[in-house]
Amino acid sequence: SANQMDKIVALCKRRGFVFQDSEIYGGVNGFWDYGPLGVELKRNVREAWWQDMVSRHDPLTAPADSPDAYQMVGVETSIIMHPQVWKCSGHYDLFHDMMVDCHACKGRFRADHLKVKLVRSTDGDPVVAWTFMPGSAEFDWPSSGDKKLSKAAAAAVENSGQDAEAAPVDMDFDTYRKTVLETSGGSEAAIPHCPNPACRGKLTEPREFNLMFKTILGALGTKDDEAFLRPETAQGIFVNFKNVCDSSRVKIPFGVAQIGKSFRNEITPRNFTFRSREFEQMEIEFFCHPDASQDWYRYWRDRRFRWYSDLGISQDRLQLRDHDPEELAHYSCGTADIEYRFPFLDEGEYGELEGIAHRGDFDLRSHMEGKLVDRDGKLEVELNEHGQPKYRGSGKDLSYFDDQSRERFVPNVIEPSAGADRATLAFICEAFAEDEAPDDKGKMQVRTLMKFHPRLAPIKAAIFPLIKKEGQPEKAKEIYRSLKEAGIAVTYDEQAAIGRRYRRQDEIGTPWCITVDGDTASDNAVTVRDRDSLEQVRVPVDEIVDEISRRMRG
Ligand code: ATP
């Protein structure tokens, strides 16, 4: 619920996971900073992805008949690329959202993703109204009171005597406008006005808004020096396809992975880090023979879905959704989204974590031949009014020669494209929990905890002396050092009552607390407390590094 999301956002700030960017100056919409714990969490997310997809992937020990006998390599490419890349890829002409603005208050919203619900006024006339439920109305007010206004608007609908019986429906602005006109008998007065309740001004026609950030290369600043911040990392892989083939002796099928920042000038950044203007992607381009591409597509769909559930995302909040044929990009023979039920979404709604797309040979061919368009179901180079290619490709041969089958072909591509920030946010939302646990006096208290998977938890163990004397701090610091030396992220805390110290660790998701107490001097053992079960067991000091390492492996 929205209430739960407020608690999560507050915890993220209080404990140093996520801050609003440039907060002391009032912040910039769509930009976020990770604090001391957030940076560790996000590093762990990236690291888990890189390890599972690239460094621990082992084609040699995979059984010969298993699909896992392919190679995986990585690259790290530039954020600013040759402008021709975006012309040939289609982003220059096509990477836009439809936007509607308000003349009066200068608010704006995305016209292709409206959420509208049919509400009936008390006298029985059907009225089409916006849903203003926080998080669902993608409307960006210019003032920083955005959230307050959307709550006020929600109240306005509630109080209008209209009965919000129907579920919200997704539609674009034109369909919405038509629906309003039809249900109102075509009256001009019913033409939708600004959804800002403090404004209600006239709206513009929907117009295209390119999402790529522009920048200038060099000092002259003419149109020819225009460049773009990449809106996806994928193109850096495609343009290096030949370099990777020539330098690393990979054989098809193989995958190239990349993690890096991408930028999109989103019209309505919202829902915490879910839709930001600067974000990080974790993308794989998997190159294969066209005949095997459908099998590889299914392989990656399932493999990527499992990755999230293996890291603790529960199956009842995660779904794999195949796109309908009309949702597919023209060149794609299949796309599926991995989606998560974020708490800021309405009941029954899911938000995209990752898309897995079968992209055919579209990308490599675009960079060979020039921007491609679909003509009667066939991809052809788009021509300008002189019959020349609208945007020229590189002219380089990006086909692949299989020396076993003696066949030359342009590989097909399967693209699992994930967001590091969205995955991190899903792990945060999934981890957040409240239960009851006894405090130092045995009284039951609400306990906030983050149930991070041990691989993702920013800190794996906290070491406490029960009291600050009798050599307990020295012993505890010794254990702390032995864990640090083993490369395990640990912390030491001797401040406040033991119960308070447990709570602090629960709230940041530390899976285990290790306490040195009065018995340690005699039995040379410590108590290990489990965050989730609250179970406490005695472990010999000499075995603590092994025990924590074993628990981290799961
Ligand atoms: P959406 O429909 O939510 O805008 P998309 O379909 O445009 O997303 P892709 O272009 O498929 O997204 O990008 C791949 C992944 O990159 C997404 O699944 C998401 O995890 C991440 N991503 C895309 N846009 C953003 C953003 N504005 N903020 C954070 N992550 C993003």
From TrEMBL:
Positions with a binding annotation for substrate? R110, E232, F279, E280, Q281, M282, E283, E415, P416, S417, A418, G419
Q: Where does ATP bind?
A: 264-266, 274-279, 352-353, 419-422
A GO molecular function assigned to this protein is: glycine-tRNA ligase activity
* Superkingdom of the organism of origin: Bacteria
Q: Could you tell me which PROSITE patterns the record lists for this protein?
A: AA_TRNA_LIGASE_II
Keywords per UniProt = Aminoacyl-tRNA synthetase, ATP-binding, Cytoplasm, Ligase, Nucleotide-binding, Protein biosynthesis
Q: What is its EC number?
A: 6.1.1.14
Q: What is its main location?
A: cytoplasm
Key word Aminoacyl-tRNA synthetase present in the record?
yes
The UniProt entry's GO biological process terms, in alphabetical order, are: diadenosine tetraphosphate biosynthetic process; glycyl-tRNA aminoacylation
Subunit comment: Homodimer.
Q: Which HAMAP family match?
A: Gly_tRNA_synth_B
The record's comment on protein family reads:
Belongs to the class-II aminoacyl-tRNA synthetase family.
**What name does this protein carry?**
Glycine--tRNA ligase
Q: Specify the species.
A: Maioricimonas rarisocia
Phylogenetic classification of the source organism: Bacteria, Pseudomonadati, Planctomycetota, Planctomycetia, Planctomycetales
